[in-house]
Amino acid sequence: MAADPGDVAAGLLAAACFLLAGVLRAACDAWGARLSFQVARRRLSALRAAAVDALADGSPLDKRRPAAGQAASVLAEQADAAQPYLARYPAIQLKMLVMPLAILAAVAPLSWIAALVLLASAPLIPVFMALVGWRAQRASQAHLAEMGTLNAFLLDRLRGLATLRALDAVDATTGRLAYVAQTLRTRTMAVLRIAFLSSAVLELFSAIGVAMVAVYVGFHLLGTLPFGTWGGPLTLGQGLFVLLLAPSFFEPLRDLSTAWHDRAAGRAALEALRALSSAPSKLVGGAAPFPPASGAPARRPPPAVELVQLRFAHAEAASPVVDGIDLRVAPGERVAIMGPSGSGKSTLLALIAGLVPARSGAVVIDGVALDDHSAPRLRARMAWIGQKPHVFAGTLGANVALGRPDVDARAVGRALEAATLEQLAGREAGRPLGESGTGLSGGECLRLAMARAAAAPGTDLWLADEPTAHLDAATARELTRRLLAQSAGRTLIVATHDPELASRMDRVIDLAAPRAAPADTETVPLAAVGAAS
Ligand SMILES: Nc1ncnc2c1ncn2[C@@H]1O[C@H](COP(=O)(O)OP(=O)(O)OP(=O)(O)O)[C@@H](O)[C@H]1O
Question: For the ABC transmembrane type-1 domain, which residue ranges apply (predicted)?
Protein backbone atom coordinates (compact mmCIF):
# COMPACT_ATOMS: atom_id res chain seq x y z
CA MET A 1 0.00 0.00 0.00
CA ALA A 2 1.51 3.36 -1.17
CA ALA A 3 1.70 6.09 1.45
CA ASP A 4 -0.32 9.24 0.91
CA PRO A 5 1.92 12.23 -0.09
CA GLY A 6 0.09 14.37 2.48
CA ASP A 7 0.99 11.87 5.20
CA VAL A 8 4.63 11.86 4.05
CA ALA A 9 4.77 15.65 4.28
CA ALA A 10 3.16 15.56 7.74
CA GLY A 11 5.63 12.87 8.80
CA LEU A 12 8.58 14.89 7.53
CA LEU A 13 7.29 17.97 9.30
CA ALA A 14 6.90 15.99 12.53
CA ALA A 15 10.42 14.59 12.10
CA ALA A 16 11.82 18.10 11.57
CA CYS A 17 10.03 19.37 14.67
CA PHE A 18 11.33 16.34 16.54
CA LEU A 19 14.89 17.08 15.38
CA LEU A 20 14.60 20.71 16.40
CA ALA A 21 13.23 19.76 19.81
CA GLY A 22 16.12 17.27 20.15
CA VAL A 23 18.70 19.97 19.47
CA LEU A 24 16.98 22.28 21.93
CA ARG A 25 16.90 19.57 24.53
CA ALA A 26 20.59 18.73 24.01
CA ALA A 27 21.46 22.40 24.55
CA CYS A 28 19.35 22.50 27.75
CA ASP A 29 20.90 19.21 28.89
CA ALA A 30 24.43 20.59 28.41
CA TRP A 31 23.58 23.79 30.26
CA GLY A 32 21.87 21.86 33.08
CA ALA A 33 24.77 19.40 33.37
CA ARG A 34 27.22 22.27 33.68
CA LEU A 35 25.10 23.97 36.31
CA SER A 36 24.57 20.84 38.38
CA PHE A 37 28.29 19.96 38.10
CA GLN A 38 29.15 23.33 39.63
CA VAL A 39 26.56 22.97 42.40
CA ALA A 40 27.79 19.43 43.18
CA ARG A 41 31.44 20.56 43.21
CA ARG A 42 30.59 23.33 45.67
CA ARG A 43 28.68 20.92 47.90
CA LEU A 44 31.45 18.33 47.80
CA SER A 45 34.06 20.98 48.57
CA ALA A 46 32.00 22.06 51.59
CA LEU A 47 31.73 18.45 52.80
CA ARG A 48 35.46 17.89 52.30
CA ALA A 49 36.23 21.14 54.16
CA ALA A 50 33.97 20.01 57.03
CA ALA A 51 35.81 16.67 57.20
CA VAL A 52 39.22 18.40 57.16
CA ASP A 53 38.03 20.80 59.88
CA ALA A 54 36.82 17.87 61.99
CA LEU A 55 40.19 16.13 61.58
CA ALA A 56 41.96 19.34 62.61
CA ASP A 57 39.57 19.74 65.55
CA GLY A 58 40.09 16.15 66.72
CA SER A 59 42.24 15.53 69.75
CA PRO A 60 45.68 14.13 68.83
CA LEU A 61 45.43 11.98 71.96
CA ASP A 62 42.36 10.09 70.80
CA LYS A 63 43.39 6.71 69.46
CA ARG A 64 39.97 6.34 67.76
CA ARG A 65 41.03 9.00 65.26
CA PRO A 66 40.88 7.67 61.71
CA ALA A 67 44.20 6.33 60.47
CA ALA A 68 46.10 8.90 58.39
CA GLY A 69 46.12 6.67 55.28
CA GLN A 70 42.39 6.07 55.55
CA ALA A 71 41.60 9.77 56.02
CA ALA A 72 43.81 10.64 53.03
CA SER A 73 42.11 7.97 50.95
CA VAL A 74 38.61 9.24 51.80
CA LEU A 75 39.47 12.90 51.23
CA ALA A 76 41.59 12.60 48.11
CA GLU A 77 40.14 9.58 46.36
CA GLN A 78 36.88 8.18 47.69
CA ALA A 79 35.13 11.56 48.02
CA ASP A 80 35.33 11.98 44.23
CA ALA A 81 32.84 9.13 43.89
CA ALA A 82 30.19 11.46 45.33
CA GLN A 83 30.64 14.02 42.52
CA PRO A 84 28.71 12.18 39.75
CA TYR A 85 25.99 11.27 42.24
CA LEU A 86 25.54 14.82 43.51
CA ALA A 87 25.74 16.25 39.99
CA ARG A 88 23.48 13.86 38.09
CA TYR A 89 21.15 12.06 40.42
CA PRO A 90 18.79 14.90 41.49
CA ALA A 91 18.27 15.96 37.84
CA ILE A 92 17.64 12.36 36.77
CA GLN A 93 15.14 11.89 39.59
CA LEU A 94 13.23 14.94 38.41
CA LYS A 95 13.39 13.74 34.81
CA MET A 96 12.07 10.37 35.97
CA LEU A 97 9.01 12.04 37.45
CA VAL A 98 8.19 14.35 34.55
CA MET A 99 9.31 12.83 31.24
CA PRO A 100 7.57 9.43 31.14
CA LEU A 101 4.28 11.05 32.21
CA ALA A 102 4.62 13.76 29.55
CA ILE A 103 5.34 11.15 26.87
CA LEU A 104 2.42 9.01 27.99
CA ALA A 105 0.20 12.09 27.82
CA ALA A 106 1.40 12.70 24.24
CA VAL A 107 1.09 9.07 23.06
CA ALA A 108 -2.20 8.10 24.76
CA PRO A 109 -4.50 10.41 22.68
CA LEU A 110 -3.09 8.81 19.49
CA SER A 111 -2.92 5.15 20.50
CA TRP A 112 -4.07 3.75 23.80
CA ILE A 113 -2.41 0.42 23.07
CA ALA A 114 1.06 2.01 22.56
CA ALA A 115 0.56 3.92 25.83
CA LEU A 116 -0.48 0.72 27.54
CA VAL A 117 2.64 -1.13 26.32
CA LEU A 118 4.87 1.66 27.66
CA LEU A 119 2.94 1.82 30.92
CA ALA A 120 3.15 -1.94 31.44
CA SER A 121 6.89 -2.26 30.84
CA ALA A 122 7.96 0.79 32.87
CA PRO A 123 6.96 0.05 36.49
CA LEU A 124 8.89 -3.22 36.62
CA ILE A 125 12.09 -1.34 36.14
CA PRO A 126 12.10 0.93 39.22
CA VAL A 127 10.99 -2.00 41.39
CA PHE A 128 13.90 -4.08 40.21
CA MET A 129 16.31 -1.15 40.46
CA ALA A 130 15.28 -0.47 44.06
CA LEU A 131 15.98 -4.08 44.94
CA VAL A 132 19.39 -3.93 43.26
CA GLY A 133 20.09 -0.50 44.76
CA TRP A 134 20.04 -1.64 48.35
CA ARG A 135 22.60 -4.31 47.60
CA ALA A 136 24.64 -1.93 45.46
CA GLN A 137 24.99 0.60 48.27
CA ARG A 138 26.04 -2.06 50.76
CA ALA A 139 28.58 -3.41 48.28
CA SER A 140 29.92 0.09 47.58
CA GLN A 141 30.25 0.86 51.29
CA ALA A 142 32.20 -2.36 51.85
CA HIS A 143 34.35 -1.58 48.80
CA LEU A 144 35.23 1.94 49.96
CA ALA A 145 35.92 0.76 53.52
CA GLU A 146 38.27 -1.88 52.15
CA MET A 147 40.02 0.71 50.00
CA GLY A 148 40.58 2.88 53.11
CA THR A 149 41.87 -0.15 55.02
CA LEU A 150 44.33 -0.98 52.26
CA ASN A 151 45.61 2.61 52.13
CA ALA A 152 45.94 2.86 55.91
CA PHE A 153 47.70 -0.52 56.01
CA LEU A 154 50.12 0.46 53.25
CA LEU A 155 51.00 3.82 54.79
CA ASP A 156 51.47 2.29 58.23
CA ARG A 157 53.71 -0.52 56.98
CA LEU A 158 55.71 1.79 54.68
CA ARG A 159 56.46 4.00 57.67
CA GLY A 160 57.63 0.99 59.63
CA LEU A 161 59.53 -0.75 56.83
CA ALA A 162 62.84 -0.63 58.68
CA THR A 163 61.26 -2.22 61.79
CA LEU A 164 59.64 -4.94 59.70
CA ARG A 165 62.98 -5.71 58.05
CA ALA A 166 64.82 -5.72 61.36
CA LEU A 167 62.32 -8.19 62.82
CA ASP A 168 62.21 -10.32 59.68
CA ALA A 169 58.47 -9.69 59.38
CA VAL A 170 58.51 -8.70 55.70
CA ASP A 171 57.07 -12.02 54.46
CA ALA A 172 54.26 -11.96 57.00
CA THR A 173 53.44 -8.38 55.99
CA THR A 174 53.53 -9.31 52.30
CA GLY A 175 51.07 -12.12 53.02
CA ARG A 176 48.78 -9.77 54.91
CA LEU A 177 49.00 -7.21 52.11
CA ALA A 178 48.10 -9.88 49.56
CA TYR A 179 45.11 -10.84 51.69
CA VAL A 180 43.89 -7.21 51.99
CA ALA A 181 44.41 -6.66 48.25
CA GLN A 182 42.49 -9.88 47.47
CA THR A 183 39.59 -8.74 49.68
CA LEU A 184 39.55 -5.41 47.85
CA ARG A 185 39.51 -7.24 44.52
CA THR A 186 36.53 -9.36 45.62
CA ARG A 187 34.65 -6.28 46.80
CA THR A 188 35.41 -4.43 43.54
CA MET A 189 34.11 -7.38 41.52
CA ALA A 190 30.95 -7.49 43.65
CA VAL A 191 30.27 -3.81 42.92
CA LEU A 192 30.92 -4.29 39.20
CA ARG A 193 28.71 -7.38 39.08
CA ILE A 194 25.78 -5.47 40.54
CA ALA A 195 26.42 -2.52 38.22
CA PHE A 196 26.43 -4.77 35.11
CA LEU A 197 23.41 -6.71 36.30
CA SER A 198 21.34 -3.58 36.90
CA SER A 199 22.11 -2.04 33.51
CA ALA A 200 21.56 -5.35 31.71
CA VAL A 201 18.09 -5.75 33.25
CA LEU A 202 17.16 -2.20 32.40
CA GLU A 203 18.38 -2.46 28.81
CA LEU A 204 16.39 -5.67 28.41
CA PHE A 205 13.13 -4.18 29.68
CA SER A 206 13.46 -0.99 27.69
CA ALA A 207 14.45 -2.87 24.52
CA ILE A 208 11.39 -5.11 24.88
CA GLY A 209 9.17 -2.06 25.47
CA VAL A 210 10.48 -0.17 22.42
CA ALA A 211 10.35 -3.31 20.24
CA MET A 212 6.73 -3.97 21.16
CA VAL A 213 5.71 -0.39 20.30
CA ALA A 214 7.67 -0.63 17.03
CA VAL A 215 6.04 -3.94 16.09
CA TYR A 216 2.61 -2.58 16.91
CA VAL A 217 3.09 0.71 14.98
CA GLY A 218 4.64 -1.11 11.98
CA PHE A 219 1.85 -3.68 11.71
CA HIS A 220 -0.77 -1.01 12.40
CA LEU A 221 0.50 1.11 9.51
CA LEU A 222 0.47 -2.01 7.31
CA GLY A 223 -3.12 -2.57 8.41
CA THR A 224 -2.47 -5.93 10.09
CA LEU A 225 -3.21 -4.62 13.60
CA PRO A 226 -5.94 -2.08 12.91
CA PHE A 227 -7.04 -1.67 16.58
CA GLY A 228 -5.60 0.38 19.44
CA THR A 229 -6.47 3.91 18.34
CA TRP A 230 -9.37 6.13 19.38
CA GLY A 231 -10.80 6.80 15.94
CA GLY A 232 -9.40 5.94 12.54
CA PRO A 233 -6.00 4.38 11.93
CA LEU A 234 -2.75 6.22 12.66
CA THR A 235 -1.31 8.32 9.89
CA LEU A 236 2.37 7.81 8.94
CA GLY A 237 3.27 11.03 10.79
CA GLN A 238 1.43 9.93 13.94
CA GLY A 239 3.02 6.48 13.72
CA LEU A 240 6.48 8.00 13.38
CA PHE A 241 5.73 10.36 16.26
CA VAL A 242 4.79 7.46 18.58
CA LEU A 243 7.79 5.44 17.38
CA LEU A 244 10.26 8.23 17.97
CA LEU A 245 8.87 8.97 21.42
CA ALA A 246 9.09 5.37 22.65
CA PRO A 247 12.89 5.33 23.29
CA SER A 248 12.61 8.71 25.02
CA PHE A 249 10.08 7.20 27.39
CA PHE A 250 12.77 4.81 28.62
CA GLU A 251 15.57 7.34 28.50
CA PRO A 252 15.17 8.66 32.08
CA LEU A 253 15.04 5.05 33.26
CA ARG A 254 18.24 4.35 31.35
CA ASP A 255 19.85 7.43 32.85
CA LEU A 256 18.70 6.17 36.19
CA SER A 257 20.42 2.88 35.57
CA THR A 258 23.78 4.59 34.90
CA ALA A 259 23.22 6.87 37.87
CA TRP A 260 22.22 3.92 40.04
CA HIS A 261 25.79 2.79 40.40
CA ASP A 262 26.86 6.43 40.95
CA ARG A 263 24.17 6.67 43.60
CA ALA A 264 25.41 3.63 45.49
CA ALA A 265 29.07 4.67 45.27
CA GLY A 266 28.20 8.32 45.99
CA ARG A 267 26.14 7.56 49.07
CA ALA A 268 28.88 5.31 50.40
CA ALA A 269 31.45 8.08 49.79
CA LEU A 270 29.24 10.65 51.54
CA GLU A 271 28.87 8.24 54.45
CA ALA A 272 32.68 7.90 54.66
CA LEU A 273 33.05 11.71 54.58
CA ARG A 274 30.42 12.05 57.30
CA ALA A 275 32.24 9.49 59.44
CA LEU A 276 35.42 11.57 59.12
CA SER A 277 33.46 14.67 60.08
CA SER A 278 32.50 13.33 63.49
CA ALA A 279 35.64 13.52 65.64
CA PRO A 280 34.84 11.60 68.86
CA SER A 281 37.03 13.77 71.06
CA LYS A 282 37.95 17.35 70.21
CA LEU A 283 40.66 19.82 71.08
CA VAL A 284 39.33 22.37 73.54
CA GLY A 285 38.13 25.20 71.29
CA GLY A 286 38.77 23.12 68.17
CA ALA A 287 41.36 24.28 65.69
CA ALA A 288 40.02 27.85 65.65
CA PRO A 289 42.71 30.28 64.47
CA PHE A 290 44.43 32.45 67.04
CA PRO A 291 42.94 35.93 67.37
CA PRO A 292 44.92 38.42 65.27
CA ALA A 293 47.67 40.18 67.24
CA SER A 294 46.91 43.89 67.53
CA GLY A 295 50.15 45.85 66.98
CA ALA A 296 53.27 45.14 69.05
CA PRO A 297 53.13 42.21 71.51
CA ALA A 298 51.47 43.34 74.74
CA ARG A 299 53.83 43.73 77.70
CA ARG A 300 52.11 41.58 80.26
CA PRO A 301 53.28 39.36 83.07
CA PRO A 302 53.47 35.64 82.25
CA PRO A 303 50.37 33.66 83.20
CA ALA A 304 49.67 31.68 86.35
CA VAL A 305 48.39 28.15 85.73
CA GLU A 306 45.90 26.53 88.06
CA LEU A 307 44.57 23.00 87.88
CA VAL A 308 41.43 22.43 89.94
CA GLN A 309 40.37 18.86 90.71
CA LEU A 310 41.43 17.82 87.22
CA ARG A 311 40.27 14.38 86.10
CA PHE A 312 40.89 12.61 82.84
CA ALA A 313 40.78 9.09 81.43
CA HIS A 314 41.91 8.18 77.94
CA ALA A 315 39.31 6.79 75.51
CA GLU A 316 38.54 3.14 76.31
CA ALA A 317 40.83 3.23 79.38
CA ALA A 318 39.61 1.42 82.47
CA SER A 319 40.85 3.97 85.00
CA PRO A 320 41.68 7.68 84.95
CA VAL A 321 45.29 8.64 84.32
CA VAL A 322 44.81 12.06 85.91
CA ASP A 323 42.64 11.70 88.97
CA GLY A 324 41.69 14.84 90.85
CA ILE A 325 44.88 16.87 90.55
CA ASP A 326 45.08 20.32 92.16
CA LEU A 327 48.07 22.47 91.33
CA ARG A 328 49.00 26.13 91.20
CA VAL A 329 51.94 27.40 89.16
CA ALA A 330 52.77 31.06 89.84
CA PRO A 331 53.38 33.56 87.02
CA GLY A 332 56.91 33.11 85.66
CA GLU A 333 57.49 30.01 87.79
CA ARG A 334 59.46 27.09 86.34
CA VAL A 335 58.09 23.74 87.36
CA ALA A 336 59.23 20.20 86.61
CA ILE A 337 56.69 17.38 86.61
CA MET A 338 58.29 14.07 87.43
CA GLY A 339 57.01 10.57 87.94
CA PRO A 340 57.50 7.07 86.61
CA SER A 341 56.93 6.27 82.95
CA GLY A 342 53.18 6.08 82.30
CA SER A 343 52.26 8.12 85.38
CA GLY A 344 50.56 10.76 83.22
CA LYS A 345 53.10 13.58 82.85
CA SER A 346 52.56 14.05 79.10
CA THR A 347 48.80 13.72 79.54
CA LEU A 348 48.84 16.46 82.18
CA LEU A 349 50.73 18.80 79.83
CA ALA A 350 48.28 17.97 77.04
CA LEU A 351 45.37 18.84 79.36
CA ILE A 352 46.94 22.20 80.18
CA ALA A 353 47.35 22.87 76.44
CA GLY A 354 43.72 21.82 75.85
CA LEU A 355 44.80 19.11 73.40
CA VAL A 356 42.12 16.99 74.99
CA PRO A 357 39.17 18.06 77.16
CA ALA A 358 39.24 17.08 80.86
CA ARG A 359 36.46 14.82 82.11
CA SER A 360 35.95 17.16 85.06
CA GLY A 361 37.72 19.93 86.93
CA ALA A 362 39.28 22.99 85.35
CA VAL A 363 42.46 24.36 83.84
CA VAL A 364 42.70 28.06 84.65
CA ILE A 365 45.31 30.15 82.86
CA ASP A 366 45.92 33.73 83.93
CA GLY A 367 42.61 33.63 85.80
CA VAL A 368 40.65 32.46 82.73
CA ALA A 369 39.19 28.96 82.59
CA LEU A 370 40.32 27.10 79.48
CA ASP A 371 37.15 26.35 77.50
CA ASP A 372 35.97 26.35 73.90
CA HIS A 373 35.52 30.11 74.00
CA SER A 374 38.82 31.11 75.63
CA ALA A 375 41.05 28.39 74.14
CA PRO A 376 42.19 30.16 70.91
CA ARG A 377 43.19 33.27 72.88
CA LEU A 378 44.96 31.28 75.60
CA ARG A 379 46.59 28.89 73.15
CA ALA A 380 48.14 31.85 71.32
CA ARG A 381 50.18 32.37 74.51
CA MET A 382 51.41 28.78 74.69
CA ALA A 383 54.37 27.03 73.10
CA TRP A 384 54.36 23.26 73.00
CA ILE A 385 57.59 21.30 72.86
CA GLY A 386 56.27 17.81 72.32
CA GLN A 387 57.89 14.41 72.70
CA LYS A 388 57.22 13.40 69.09
CA PRO A 389 57.37 16.59 67.02
CA HIS A 390 56.34 16.19 63.43
CA VAL A 391 59.16 17.09 61.07
CA PHE A 392 58.06 17.98 57.56
CA ALA A 393 60.06 17.19 54.46
CA GLY A 394 62.00 20.41 53.79
CA THR A 395 64.91 22.36 55.20
CA LEU A 396 65.60 22.81 58.89
CA GLY A 397 64.82 26.51 58.54
CA ALA A 398 61.50 25.85 56.80
CA ASN A 399 60.62 23.47 59.61
CA VAL A 400 61.21 26.21 62.16
CA ALA A 401 59.42 28.97 60.24
CA LEU A 402 56.53 26.70 59.18
CA GLY A 403 55.38 29.25 56.67
CA ARG A 404 54.78 31.93 59.33
CA PRO A 405 55.45 35.20 57.47
CA ASP A 406 56.67 37.03 60.61
CA VAL A 407 59.44 34.45 61.21
CA ASP A 408 62.21 35.67 58.89
CA ALA A 409 65.66 34.13 58.31
CA ARG A 410 67.20 36.02 61.25
CA ALA A 411 64.47 34.87 63.64
CA VAL A 412 65.00 31.30 62.42
CA GLY A 413 68.75 31.61 63.04
CA ARG A 414 68.16 32.89 66.58
CA ALA A 415 65.63 30.13 67.28
CA LEU A 416 68.03 27.42 66.04
CA GLU A 417 70.71 28.84 68.29
CA ALA A 418 68.36 28.86 71.27
CA ALA A 419 67.81 25.16 70.67
CA THR A 420 71.55 24.37 70.30
CA LEU A 421 71.04 23.50 66.65
CA GLU A 422 73.28 26.18 65.16
CA GLN A 423 76.05 23.75 64.24
CA LEU A 424 73.70 21.36 62.52
CA ALA A 425 72.04 24.29 60.76
CA GLY A 426 75.47 25.40 59.49
CA ARG A 427 76.30 21.90 58.22
CA GLU A 428 72.91 21.25 56.65
CA ALA A 429 72.26 24.79 55.39
CA GLY A 430 69.66 24.68 52.63
CA ARG A 431 69.65 20.87 52.44
CA PRO A 432 66.21 19.28 52.74
CA LEU A 433 65.38 16.78 55.47
CA GLY A 434 63.57 13.59 54.58
CA GLU A 435 59.98 12.72 55.45
CA SER A 436 59.21 12.52 59.20
CA GLY A 437 62.59 13.95 60.13
CA THR A 438 64.82 11.42 58.39
CA GLY A 439 68.27 12.94 58.64
CA LEU A 440 67.77 14.17 62.22
CA SER A 441 68.55 12.26 65.39
CA GLY A 442 65.87 11.84 68.07
CA GLY A 443 67.48 14.56 70.18
CA GLU A 444 67.75 16.90 67.19
CA CYS A 445 64.03 16.43 66.48
CA LEU A 446 63.23 17.48 70.05
CA ARG A 447 65.54 20.48 69.77
CA LEU A 448 63.79 21.41 66.53
CA ALA A 449 60.54 21.55 68.52
CA MET A 450 62.25 23.91 70.95
CA ALA A 451 63.47 26.07 68.07
CA ARG A 452 59.87 26.32 66.82
CA ALA A 453 58.81 27.55 70.28
CA ALA A 454 61.68 30.02 70.38
CA ALA A 455 60.49 31.40 67.03
CA ALA A 456 57.16 32.37 68.60
CA PRO A 457 58.08 35.41 70.72
CA GLY A 458 54.47 36.12 71.73
CA THR A 459 54.27 32.93 73.80
CA ASP A 460 54.68 33.20 77.55
CA LEU A 461 53.59 29.76 78.75
CA TRP A 462 55.97 27.01 77.64
CA LEU A 463 55.02 23.38 77.99
CA ALA A 464 57.93 21.05 77.32
CA ASP A 465 57.67 17.27 77.28
CA GLU A 466 61.03 15.67 78.07
CA PRO A 467 63.14 18.22 76.17
CA THR A 468 66.41 16.56 77.20
CA ALA A 469 65.39 13.01 76.26
CA HIS A 470 67.85 11.29 73.87
CA LEU A 471 70.61 13.84 74.58
CA ASP A 472 74.10 13.16 75.90
CA ALA A 473 74.89 14.74 79.26
CA ALA A 474 76.84 17.69 77.82
CA THR A 475 74.20 18.59 75.19
CA ALA A 476 71.40 18.11 77.76
CA ARG A 477 73.19 20.50 80.11
CA GLU A 478 73.65 23.06 77.31
CA LEU A 479 70.01 22.72 76.22
CA THR A 480 68.84 23.13 79.82
CA ARG A 481 70.89 26.30 80.08
CA ARG A 482 69.41 27.71 76.89
CA LEU A 483 65.88 26.60 77.83
CA LEU A 484 66.18 28.45 81.11
CA ALA A 485 67.55 31.51 79.34
CA GLN A 486 64.69 31.39 76.81
CA SER A 487 62.07 30.90 79.48
CA ALA A 488 63.04 34.05 81.40
CA GLY A 489 59.86 36.08 81.76
CA ARG A 490 57.76 33.04 80.87
CA THR A 491 55.96 30.37 82.84
CA LEU A 492 57.60 27.02 82.13
CA ILE A 493 56.20 23.57 82.88
CA VAL A 494 58.45 20.66 81.97
CA ALA A 495 57.67 16.94 82.12
CA THR A 496 60.93 15.16 82.61
CA HIS A 497 62.89 12.17 83.90
CA ASP A 498 66.10 14.24 83.89
CA PRO A 499 67.14 15.00 87.50
CA GLU A 500 69.59 17.62 86.34
CA LEU A 501 66.96 19.54 84.39
CA ALA A 502 64.52 19.18 87.29
CA SER A 503 67.09 20.47 89.76
CA ARG A 504 67.35 23.73 87.77
CA MET A 505 63.60 24.38 88.07
CA ASP A 506 61.96 26.42 90.84
CA ARG A 507 59.84 23.50 91.93
CA VAL A 508 59.29 19.79 91.25
CA ILE A 509 55.90 18.09 91.26
CA ASP A 510 56.11 14.36 91.78
CA LEU A 511 53.10 12.58 90.33
CA ALA A 512 54.04 9.48 92.29
CA ALA A 513 53.63 11.33 95.62
CA PRO A 514 50.62 10.25 97.74
CA ARG A 515 47.45 11.73 96.25
CA ALA A 516 45.77 12.59 99.59
CA ALA A 517 48.23 15.38 100.25
CA PRO A 518 47.19 18.94 99.38
CA ALA A 519 48.64 20.29 96.14
CA ASP A 520 51.54 22.25 97.45
CA THR A 521 52.79 19.42 99.64
CA GLU A 522 53.12 17.31 96.48
CA THR A 523 56.19 19.40 95.86
CA VAL A 524 59.27 17.43 96.76
CA PRO A 525 62.49 19.04 97.93
CA LEU A 526 65.00 19.48 95.12
CA ALA A 527 67.46 17.25 96.90
CA ALA A 528 65.03 14.36 96.62
CA VAL A 529 64.69 14.67 92.85
CA GLY A 530 67.41 12.25 92.03
CA ALA A 531 65.68 9.59 94.10
CA ALA A 532 62.30 10.43 92.59
CA SER A 533 63.48 9.64 89.11
N1 LIG B 1 46.45 8.59 73.39
C2 LIG B 1 46.33 7.69 74.36
N3 LIG B 1 45.27 6.86 74.39
C4 LIG B 1 45.14 5.96 75.39
N5 LIG B 1 46.01 5.81 76.40
C6 LIG B 1 47.09 6.61 76.41
C7 LIG B 1 47.31 7.58 75.41
N8 LIG B 1 48.46 8.22 75.67
C9 LIG B 1 48.93 7.68 76.81
N10 LIG B 1 48.13 6.71 77.26
C11 LIG B 1 48.27 5.95 78.48
O12 LIG B 1 48.15 6.86 79.55
C13 LIG B 1 49.13 6.62 80.54
C14 LIG B 1 49.94 7.90 80.77
O15 LIG B 1 50.65 8.20 79.62
P16 LIG B 1 51.60 9.45 79.54
O17 LIG B 1 52.18 9.51 78.18
O18 LIG B 1 50.88 10.65 80.02
O19 LIG B 1 52.71 9.04 80.62
P20 LIG B 1 54.12 9.72 80.91
O21 LIG B 1 54.19 9.85 82.39
O22 LIG B 1 54.31 10.94 80.12
O23 LIG B 1 55.07 8.58 80.39
P24 LIG B 1 56.59 8.69 79.86
O25 LIG B 1 57.41 9.16 81.02
O26 LIG B 1 56.92 7.30 79.48
O27 LIG B 1 56.60 9.64 78.73
C28 LIG B 1 49.96 5.45 80.05
O29 LIG B 1 49.50 4.32 80.73
C30 LIG B 1 49.65 5.35 78.58
O31 LIG B 1 49.65 4.01 78.17
Answer: 1-265
What is the Å distance from ligand 1's center to 342 Cα?
5
The residue whose CA has the least distance to atom 11 of ligand 1 is 342
For a pocket test of ligand 1, which of 347, 348, 496 has the largest count of ligand atoms closer than 8 A to its C-beta? 347
CATH number, position 79 = 1.20.1560.10
Count other Cβ atoms within 10 Å, centred on residue 488: 10
- Of ligand 1's listed atoms, the one at least distance from the Cα of 347 is 18
Residue of the CA atom closest to atom 28 of ligand 1: 342
Residues 250 and 368 in one domain: no
Q: 192: closest CA among 140, 147, 141, 145? A: 140
| Domain enclosing residue 356, as ranges | 305-532
Strand partners, 408: none
Let me know if residue 292 belongs to a domain: no
DSSP strand E in 386-487: where?
A: 461-465
Q: In terms of domains, do 324 and 391 share one?
A: yes
| ipTM here | 0.95
Q: What is the pLDDT of residue 528?
A: 34
- Asked which of 276, 295, 322 is the last residue of a domain, the reply is 276
Q: Give yes or no: residues 102 and 213 share one domain.
A: yes
Rounded Cα gap, residues 86 and 8, in angstroms: 45
Question: How many angstroms separate the CA atoms of 466 and 385, rounded?
Answer: 8
Is residue 394 within 8 Å of residue 432, measured between CB atoms? Answer: yes
- pLDDT at position 132: 65
Q: How confident is the model at residue 300 (pLDDT cuts 50, 70, 90)?
A: confident
Q: How many helices (H) and strands (E) does the chain have?
A: 17, 9
The predicted structure's pLDDT at residue 531: 32
SS3 labels along 245-268: HHHHHHHHHHHHHHHHHHHHHHHH
334-379 residue pLDDT tens: 999 999 998 999 999 999 999 999 999 999 999 999 999 999 899 9
Ligand 1 pocket at CB < 6 A: 61, 63, 314, 317, 321, 339, 341-347, 495
